[in-house]
Design a protein that fits this description.
SH3 type barrels, L,D-transpeptidase catalytic domain-like, five-stranded mixed sheet, 23 strands, globular, transferase activity, LD_TPept_cat_dom, LD-transpeptidase
């Protein structure tokens, strides 16, 4: 992932001892809750930089209120993604005091986030926390830099997903998107993790992204994280019936699984 060519990196799977498969299965259910359960009433953990103590982590479980929103949610990204080799401080602007920390790993894999702006010594990245589209500045030092050639586009109105690789269309599929009361959130996000449950119930693979339901604070015991995943019945495709996740056909899921972590995702209305 280093050098002038800046090759495409591959997603990191679960790490650790043999119990990792069970951990992944539980993580997949608790993070997304896409396959069943009922919406929860609780709030995701809110955090701000105003108090003392340890800084909050920028993960799918937290809400970061002291960081700027994405100012160009419909703009294309160039595919540059970064991985902090150790916990990185996150600031609201270059040189400002840190108000959060971006961990080197989360959801049992390495943290890769897309770059949306660069200044000398700093990178502005999309973060996986609430509110959707939250961004932060991290120092350029201590980062692995790579480039994803993939882009995932979801058109909510047409209920279509298109996967591009180096600008070439790999495929377009009819998918299921959020229902009117639980819509799939629009804007720029990214592939956050790749989870393979040991005993799949509705999908052999779940791909959480760095976005959350705008109408559900929690779902199925998790923080309402949106994800790409499969579904047992093809009858759902082309319909707006989910709690915010995007259900995709088997071929689409297989191809999406090849997109590296941090790959840009653009969801349009």
């Amino acid at each position: 992932m280093r050098g002038a060519a800046r090759p495409v990196h591959r997603p990191r799977r679960a790490r650790g001892p043999a119990t990792g498969a069970a951990v992944l299965a539980a993580t997949a259910v608790l993070v997304t809750g896409c396959g069943g359960g009922e919406p929860g009433a609780g709030k995701a953990a809110a955090a701000d930089g105003g108090g003392g103590g340890k800084l909050p982590e920028a993960t799918t479980y937290t809400t970061l209120n002291d960081l700027p929103a994405d100012t160009a949610p419909a703009a294309a990204m160039d595919g540059t993604v970064v991985h902090p080799t150790e916990t990185a401080p996150v600031s609201s602007q270059p040189g400002a005091p840190a108000v959060a920390e971006l961990p080197a790993s989360q959801l049992k894999g390495d943290t890769w986030v897309p770059v949306v702006e660069t200044r000398p010594g700093w990178r502005r990245v999309l973060l996986p926390s609430r509110p959707n589209g939250v961004t932060g500045w991290i120092p350029d030092s201590g980062l692995k830099v790579a480039r994803s050639s993939h882009v995932i586009k979801v058109d909510v109105s047409d209920r279509k997903l298109t996967l591009l690789n180096s600008g070439r269309k790999e495929g377009t599929w009819s998918v299921a998107v959020g229902a009117p009361k639980t819509p799939t959130p629009t804007g720029r996000t990214f592939v956050l993790a790749s989870l393979a449950p040991s005993k799949p119930t509705y999908s052999p693979l779940i791909l959480p992204v760095g976005a959350h339901s705008e109408t559900l604070d929690t779902f199925g015991g998790g923080p309402g994280t949106v994800a790409f995943h499969g579904w047992p019945s093809a009858s759902v495709f082309g319909k707006a019936i989910t709690h915010g996740c995007v259900r995709v056909p088997p071929d689409a899921l297989k191809r999406l699984a090849k997109a590296p972590l941090g790959t840009p995702v653009l969801v349009t209305a």
